[in-house]
Each structure stands twice: as C-alpha cells, then as structure tokens.
TrEMBL record:
It comes from Thermodesulforhabdus norvegica. Pfam families: Fer4_8 (PF13183). This is 4Fe-4S dicluster domain-containing protein. PANTHER family: IRON-SULFUR-BINDING OXIDOREDUCTASE FADF-RELATED, IRON-SULFUR-BINDING OXIDOREDUCTASE FADF-RELATED-RELATED. GO terms for molecular function: 4 iron, 4 sulfur cluster binding; metal ion binding; oxidoreductase activity. GO terms for cellular component: plasma membrane.
Amino acid sequence: MEKFSYPNRCFTCAGCDADCPISLRTGALKPRSLVRLHVLGMTEALLRDPSIWYCIQCERCARTCPMNVKPSAVIRSARNKALSEGIVNPKFPEMLRQLRRRLQIARRQAAQDIFYRRIPVDPAQIWQEAETLQFRGNGLPVTVSTGTRLQSLKPHKRYMGNSTAVSSCWTCGSCSNACPVSENSDLFSPMFIIRTVNIGQDTLTARSGECWLCVACERCIDACPQGVKGAWVIRSVQDIALRNGEIPPQSYEIWRNVDSRLHSLFVDAVRAGLLSAGGND
Ligand code: SF4
Ligand code: SF4
Ligand code: SF4
C-alpha cells in the first residue's frame, strides 16, 4: 500500500462515492466499498473486483475525503497486486488504455454532435464508431488550434480579476499533463481551454463541445504552478454559455444522459476485456 493513503481512517461517509465521476455516471464503481474490502482484509475479493479497473485515477475521491483517505491509491495498489499475482493478464493495462481513449473519442464526438451540430445522438452507435480510434473532426468555422482566422485576441473580461486567476496562465501545460481526460490531449486539454478564454474565444470552446468533457476532478488546480483554477474556469465557461443561451438547456440534459450511457458502455467493455484477457493463473 502506498504511503499516506490512510485506508484505516475511513469512517464510511461515502463522500468519495458521491463525488466519483464514474460512480455518478454509471453506479458501477464505489471507492468506499473498495476501501472497506482492503480494511477488512478481503484482499482476494478486492483484487478480483472488476471495478478497480473502471477507475480513471482522477483523484477526486482523495480530494473529497474528510479523513484524507486516498481511495485512488488503494485502487492503484490493488491493480498492481492483481497484475503481479497473475490474477489479471499483463496485456490488460494496454487494452484498458485503448478503451479509455475510445471513451474519450466517443465523448468528444457526442459532445460535438450535441452542442455544435445539434443533431440526434445514438450513444451505442458512437461507441461502435469510436473503436476505429478516429475523431471525425469538429468542422468549426474558426480554427483556434492553428492560430489562424481568429476573430478576437482580447482576453475575456468576464473571467479577469476573479478567483480563477485565468490570466496568470503561462501555458506550461501542467494542468493538461495532470488531467485524466487529457490523457488524449488531441481530444481535450484544459490548457487549450484556458488559452481560448484568455484570447476571448470561450464561446467557441463551449459550442465546440470540448469543455463539456471535463469531469470536474480538479487535478488541474492542484497541478498549476500559477494558481489558475482550471476546473473553475471550465465550469464558468459552461455556466456562462448556458446562462447566455449560447447552449440550450436541453442540449446539456441530453449530454448528461449520453455521457452516462457512454461511461456505462466503457464499463461493460472493461468487464468484457477482463474476461477475454484472462489471468495468468
Ligand atoms: S480516482 Fe476518480 S474515478 Fe477513481 S475512484 Fe477516485 S474519484 Fe472515482
Ligand atoms: S498549469 Fe496553470 S500555468 Fe500551466 S498551462 Fe495550466 S493553467 Fe496555465
Ligand atoms: S480539466 Fe481539470 S477538472 Fe476537468 S477533468 Fe481535467 S483535471 Fe479534472
């Protein structure tokens, strides 16, 4: 077990369950239960629990816990032990990495279809298409990523001087390196979103669908050497776009349902992958 993970301090308040993005979207991962299995010495059950592989290591549970327990570290240790004891095939982590990428491709495509194209979305079909590991591209009228055809280069006043410290960003990329969703930085990057805010293009990031991929874990906040509150900036972009009518509220509701469904498909695929990969024993 990693140092400073304090599983024995857990008093089962379930704060981690309530904040875990995978639990919120699927109900299939309960970090509190996994910590309990560890504390009760039920190691075999813990190592064979498929839900240890659903975790995206966002550390939200550790951030939430009032007792400084780190369920994410308990899960990491369980994964390592399951691999070293041959309960899970050593090839499985690479399969899992590809499934995580497939999830983010599917989410990016769905977010774009919902928020930008505003067309009906079938999560099962998008999940199938994402297996080819291609994102269909955003087809947006303004190309921010290449720096061409920018409509405005003025920082957006509505984010300036508030507690998000957004204008302090010096684009080091620490937030994107820490972000679990930005494991696929071609699909999502908090640094890029913060940059678009600082050049007055925040509406674009809301309309393109990108900012809706954030799972609000706040690892970007911990990682930033400049004190930028990336997660809060992204939340502000979302709130302002909804409040100003740039994004219809029904699009947001559709996104929440589709996002939950895509995460459930991810969980199903992880479980199936575990079975097909098998163990070494
Ligand atoms: S690290 Fe994130 S995904 Fe994993 S159990 Fe904790 S909150 Fe859930
Ligand atoms: S970590 Fe902070 S300074 Fe670095 S890119 Fe992200 S927001 Fe900007
Ligand atoms: S942008 Fe920040 S809050 Fe959002 S998923 Fe990435 S690290 Fe978490």
